[in-house]
Amino acid sequence: MCGIVAYIGKREAYPVLINGLKMLEYRGYDSAGVAISNGDFHVYKKKGKVQELIKHVSGAKISGTIGIAHTRWATHGKPDDINAHPHVSGNGRLAIIHNGIIENYNVIKKALLEKGHTFKSQTDTEVLAHLIEEYYEKAGVSLEEAVRLALTKVTGAYAIVVMDSENNDKLVAARKGSPLVVGIGEDEFFCASDASPIIAYTKRVVYLNDEEVCMIPREGRISIKSIMANEEQTPLVQKVDLKIEELEKGDFEHYMLKEIYEQPKILIEAMRGRLNSNEGWIKLGGIDQVKKRMADADRFVIVACGTSWHSGLIAEYMFEELARTQVEVEYASEFRYRNPIITDRDVVIALSQSGETADTLAALEMAKKNGALLYGIVNVVGSSIARLTDAGSYIHAGPEIGVASTKAFTGQLAILAMMAIHLGYEKGTIPRSYYNQLVAELENIPSKVEKLLEADAQIKYIASEIKDANNALYLGRGYNFPVALEGALKLKEISYIHAEGYPAAEMKHGPIALIDENMPVVVIATNKSSYEKVVSNVQEVKARKGKVIAIVTEGDTAISEIADYTIEIPDTDEPLTPILSVIPLQLIRK
Ligand code: BG6
Q1: Is the pLDDT of residue 303 over 90?
Q2: The whole model's pTM is what?
């Protein structure tokens, strides 16, 4: 995760780039940098947030109408001034910003060292700058051709923008496995890792496809070529449907909190026009398009990463129970490197907020080659996964800027629930009465989430009681087991506290040894199947003096009597429980 922004046109580039970096800072904030040219070449880089870069630059005469800028989340080399981007080629002429990882950078670096190149940083990106320089100088080709030739030698993922300090009339951008969008203004162009830094200036954009290199001129039209085949591509200009207000944080402390609070609204959006309890129907356009193949499928294979993978695990319970469909849930990053058995009788479902996660995309490409039907449940309209899949359902959650996914997760769950209920009814694996009950209950879910958010102050208090713990355990069974995984992931990612999620019954096979008075144990103990067993698990934790924070159903007494803290969630049908039980876990924070 890093952020890219670049500009060429008639304006002063620096304010455009700095404003862009501020909008992208959520993508990485261990260092930031900017390169600008007006004949004189200025490169400023600083460890820390964008604000540190601004301080570093203040007072300097920085002027120019072409420039590139980057905010970094370190992959190769520690976060410091030297490893910050932009990186400059050996002869000091080219500057490059890069998102992604060049996997074979060591091999390339070795070859370049043998040719006499020397490197200042520990990054893979600097190696790429030197490789492009080799082609630019030695092959005597245009910058775009030098970039293309260099990229034919590279394995891994990248979104890059390159500028030549001695030719201020063009930028060159390229992507593979990491998104990049070019904004087309009046006599000016922008380029960024997502559209957010661009929409204040223009709504007309071209999303680069994988393995494309794009020449962005100061005047005239952009031109795009495929990297490997070296063929001219026609740019597809699209209108971004994104409002600047959607990108603002408002009065919230941070984006993630804003997005947690948006969940009642986005759940309504995810279900709008797709279900109606009065008339008793669920209608998903994506499924209608591929109805027969979906009905004939031998199994569903769900591929996803991170939080999206957790919604895949919950979907497994939903599809098995309601539609009696065989389901396998795969980490896309593992699946793509295995040799999995996929046939044209499989439906491969990709879950992704961004629609750009490189591993999920690669897993889909592999499944496509094997003839599987590809179905996407993604948030970002027009994203790579949305384009690659045969059919799908958008989440309609609006931009999710907080890196740790929240509203896209519950939105995914609403869609997966609608799919499972719909398919179950079509297959006759659930009766009409249960179908109607679930449809009606899904409509009630947004107001139940709204009510749950009122518990924020109580949850904050509980969080303050456990904030000094070094470790935490999250336990759940059935539908709530993946919720336990998700809760633990959030604590790690947001509060930097080590946490593990476990199926409650597995605790006795090892983790129980860790429980003492310093160990907070979050137990998701709603009143459905396995409730009694979870009560016993809570007893086991208490017997070892663990501190129990229990998520229970309203009116619960058995667990409330033994737990240290309880957070009540409204009652609902079991397959829909995760949409509610995850909310308090999202809100637990330091
Ligand atoms: C991670 C995020 O980097 O990417 C997670 O922290 C997210 O929250 C995961 O779930 C996968 O992203 P996506 O866009 O494919 O859902």
Answers
A1: yes
A2: 0.85
